[in-house]
Design goal:
The chain is 36% helix and 15% strand. The protein has helices spanning 21-34, 46-49, 69-76, 80-93, 104-110, 127-134, 149-161, 166-169, 190-198, 212-219, 246-263, 272-281, 316-319, and strands spanning 8-14, 38-43, 96-101, 116-119, 139-143, 170-174, 201-206, 224-228, 284-287, 302-305. α1 runs parallel beside α4 and α10 packs parallel to α11.
Length: 340
């Protein structure tokens, strides 16, 4: 699970299984091969979350004539027993299993399968659902793709009233609930701003068509990166076209890990890889022409050249108007011991 100073990468399988357990198990395999830390699904009982004849969001209609959200969700719904098989397969492959619980019965079921609960963007105001998760005393990840700062502050107030230690056990996921999300709406600067204003941990759920935003979010301090993974972008379903395939996901993981390593320490120091170049690349003060003993140092007779090892050039103005105790030939190093 989550480790200190390590970016946690989640392969969002979501509903990209298209309602088939065989596809779900294949997505677990892909997530493992791609280097994800976890693979996440969605668990719900359609009758508990959607009224019949509810219309589907526009983005879900690209490859479908079925406009009924209830019937569409019913078709994609996996049974609890199937999630047990998915969890067992994840354990076998040593990849973390996660699933977003969208209703109370799903929360109770998943409480035995996972240690972290994810709350989707549409449920940030569903305090009944969130309170049920709070009772489990587990970490909570909450997406904010349909929220503003006021909504988030109301959520935190609710968590505080229910004695939930939000600074330690909550991770807010910055995101934008549009599939795909235009780059202009990614608003990645929200990540450090939320950390600063609210003192909380922040992750990023990326719904753009490529990996740049996920990588940038890692650099901005996101501790979780979530991105959709698909078996095939051409499959029918709401999220396939805005998901990554296995090769793209691998590439994203590799780049995030490079960013993770490159963030390094907050202490500004000369690194081991740079120190070997210090001697050859920094300069020393040298004679720019022959200098006689007793002659004053001036702009006309001293300058700085590589390598270092002598008087550093930040002492240049200190030397001006002082006298030489020695005779220097052009390019000789000036020495402190030979200055009057």
């Amino acid at each position: 699970m989550l480790k200190k100073n390590k970016i946690y990468i989640v392969a969002e399988a979501g509903v990209n299984h298209n309602g088939k357990i065989s596809n779900a198990l294949k997505l677990v395999n892909l997530a493992k091969k791609a280097g994800a830390d976890a693979v996440k699904f969605q668990t719900w009982r359609t009758d508990e979350i959607i009224l019949p004849k509810t219309k589907r969001p526009k983005y879900q209609l690209k490859n479908s004539k079925n406009h009924d959200q209830y019937l569409f969700a019913k078709k994609l719904e996996l049974k609890f027993a199937e999630f047990k098989k998915i969890k067992k397969h994840c354990d076998k492959l040593k990849i973390d299993f996660m699933s977003t619980a969208d209703d109370l019965s799903s929360i109770r079921f998943l409480s035995k399968l996972q240690n972290i609960f994810k709350v989707g963007s549409p449920e940030i105001k569903n305090f009944q659902l969130i309170k049920e998760i709070i009772k489990l005393k587990k970490k909570i990840i909450i997406s904010t793709g349909l929220s503003n700062l006021k909504d988030i502050k109301e959520l935190i107030l609710f968590l505080k009233k229910n004695n939930f230690n939000y600074k330690k056990k909550l991770i807010l996921m910055h995101c934008n609930t549009a599939y795909p999300t235009p780059f202009k709406d990614a608003n990645l600067n929200v990540i450090p701003e939320l950390k600063k204003k609210l003192g909380i941990k922040v992750g990023y759920s990326d719904h753009t068509l490529s990996v740049e935003c996920a990588i940038a979010a890692a650099a901005l301090g996101a501790i979780i990166i979530e991105k959709h993974l698909t078996l095939d972008k051409k499959m029918k379903g709401p999220d396939h076209s805005s998901s990554l395939n296995i090769d793209e996901f691998k590439d994203m993981v590799s780049k995030i890990r490079n960013i993770e390593y490159s963030l390094g320490s907050k202490n500004k120091k000369i690194t081991q890889s740079a120190i070997q170049n210090k001697l050859l690349m920094e300069r020393s003060i040298v004679a720019s022409k022959d200098i006689l003993s007793g002659e004053k140092f001036s702009y006309k007779n001293i300058t700085s050249k590589r390598p270092s090892g002598g008087i550093q050039p930040n002492k240049f103005f200190h030397l001006l108007s002082k006298k030489s105790k020695n005779i220097y030939k052009k390019n000789d190093l000036i020495k402190f011991s030979e200055i009057k």
